């Protein structure tokens, strides 16, 4: 059973590393902000989760699991929030192709300056 868990943790670390690598390549290769945000959040977070699971399986210790659970939860909370903030700022800067948007929920807020009450 120990050998099986070691092989499983090795496979999870390899899969997580490949996902993190594809996220880094996507950040370099994609040209527009939404594509880069997708590459920065989705595969990177899944890769991190796989690596954290592999560490927990490899060390087989409850203190390690207790340490990894908040780290994973913080990662799950901050990655989408950071992507949302970056995407919103890119929209305000005009670096997002507005005609290419299917639904533009921020169009009304763009016409009304912040803090104007309208």
From TrEMBL:
Coiled coil: none
Chain ranges passing through the membrane: 6-28, 65-86
Keywords per UniProt: Membrane, Transmembrane, Transmembrane helix
UniProt cross-references to InterPro entries, sorted A to Z: PhaG_MnhG_YufB (IPR005133)
Region feature (Disordered): 98-118
GO molecular function, one term: sodium:proton antiporter activity
Keyword Thylakoid: no
PANTHER family: ANTIPORTER SUBUNIT MNHG2-RELATED
Similarity comment text for this entry: Belongs to the CPA3 antiporters (TC 2.A.63) subunit G family.
Protein's name in the database: Multicomponent Na+:H+ antiporter subunit G
């Amino acid at each position: 059973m120990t050998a099986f868990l070691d092989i499983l943790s090795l496979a999870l670390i390899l899969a997580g590393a490949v996902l993190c690598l594809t996220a880094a390549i996507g950040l370099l290769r994609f040209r527009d902000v939404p594509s880069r945000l997708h590459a920065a959040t989705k595969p990177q977070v899944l890769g991190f989760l796989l690596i954290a699971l592999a560490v927990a399986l490899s060390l087989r210790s409850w203190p390690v699991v207790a340490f990894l659970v908040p780290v994973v939860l913080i990662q799950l909370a901050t990655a989408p929030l950071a992507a949302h903030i970056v995407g919103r700022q890119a929209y305000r800067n005009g670096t997002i192709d507005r005609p290419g948007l299917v639904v533009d929920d921020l169009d009304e807020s763009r016409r009304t300056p912040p803090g104007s009450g309208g």
